[in-house]
Amino acid sequence: MPATDIPSDILSPDLLERLRSRAAGYDESNSFFTEDLEDLRAAGYLALFTPAAEGGAGLDIPGVVACQRRLASAAPATALAVNMHLVWCGVAHLLALRGDNSLDFVLREAAAGELFAFGISEPGNPAVLFDSHTEAQPTGGGGYAFTGTKIFTSLSPAWTRLGIFGKDSSDPSEPRLVFGFADRGTGGITIADDWNTMGMRASQSCTTRLDKAEVPASRMVRATPVGPHQDPFVFGIFALFETLLSAVYTGLADRAVELAAEAARGRTSTDGVRASSDPATRWKIADAALRMDGIHLQLEAVARDLEDGADHGSYWFPLLSGLKYRSTETARGVVETAVRVAGGRSYFRGSELERLYRDVLAGMFHPSSEDSVHGSVANAVLGPVEQG
Question: Measured between alpha carbons, how far is 83 from 61 in angstroms, rounded to an integer?
């Protein structure tokens, strides 16, 4: 399905307006987007990737990217949190495209209303998917007990399935990373009430502590080596995370351009000239729109290449991390331009631009970091650092 083709019954204008109307209240009270989630579930949003024959929307990666852009233009924190559920569904979709149906149950359960969360990030673990500080102890028969701390676990108040991973060091000569899904009622899982941030507040991405939280063999889905490798499952996580995350911040910045234009049309100087006719203001808004054009094109191209199985070889990783870096940095600059255009009113609490300005700053904290992006691209262009 083309990236611009979004079924009207999934994100109708009425639904988007309801989501937008609640965003400020969730932010002010630092509360979870419970009503938004109910509306999105009823609209079939949790099953965007699930095939139509199994009760879903049957969208491809470009189609879901387009949905997330539009959702983020109305409610960025809601879109960011739902993103984590869609990452797992997207991994299942991508693997199925390549003939691996090991995660098809994720798509079926998403259509049944289950909500998947992303329990991957750990404090002090720059290796992200290639190593883990979480201990994964074999329990026999292929199951594991996980002990460790996960941070930025979006959807904390509502998830029903938590995707987690840890390191199995039972064979010290060959440690491996193991991935599985825990149910909400699994013992040994404690969710801290510690989400009180500058922005993206409704996502409620709380710290999750695991204390011998057991995942049975039937819910373990992958084992990989420690360190860089080419496993398609891990590639899928990285690819969907970076691409859908970029869609969220792109949608947020799209809205900032709209608000800048609205502000320019509504402001009049003392001599009666609208700001929308002022050359300097017009230049600023045009420059912001030009920057967004480039991000739109790259986001759509990467999404299409993922769906179509384009062969970028080892350059896939710098390509994806570069997309995330450019989209979040561009979005931050575009929102700042919109604030400058709108003037002092956007500095007051309660202004939508003030909230977007706080929300967009979260982009710098998601993987891949600024340093890792540049390191990845440097290795691709220059080769590894010479030793000695």
Answer: 13
Up-side HSE of residue 210: CA atoms within 13 Å toward CB? 32
The amino acid present at 227, given as its one-letter code, is: G
Q: What is the pLDDT of residues 316-372, one digit of tens each?
A: 999 999 999 999 999 999 999 999 999 988 999 999 999 999 999 999 999 988 988
Which residues touch 163 (CB under 8 Å, ≥6 apart)?
Answer: 88, 116, 117, 118, 119, 120, 179, 180, 181
CB atoms closer than 10 angstroms to residue 86:
26
DSSP-assigned letters across all residues of 244-312: HHHHHHHHHHHHHHHHHHHHHHH-B-TTS-BGGG-HHHHHHHHHHHHHHHHHHHHHHHHHHHHHHT---
Contact present, 181 and 161 (Cβ < 8 Å): yes
Give per-residue pLDDT as tens, 221-259: 999 999 988 899 999 999 999 999 999 999 999 999 999
Cβ–Cβ < 8 Å for 79, 38: no
Of 384, 236, 247, give the one whose Cα is nearest residue 323.
247
Run of H or E including 84: helix 76-97
Instruction: Give the DSSP letter string of 347-366.
Output: GSTT-HHHHHHHHHGGGGGS
Q: Please state, in angstroms and rounded to a whole number, the distance separating the CA atoms of residues 274 and 278.
A: 7
Pairing of strands 161-168, 116-119: parallel
DSSP 160-217: SEEEEEEEE-SSTTS-EEEEEEEETT-TTEEE------SS-GGG--EEEEEEEEEE-G
pTM beyond 0.90: the answer is yes
Query: How, if at all, do strands 206-215 and 189-191 pair?
Result: antiparallel
Distance of CA 21 to the CA centre of its chain: 22
d(CA 139, CA 15): 46
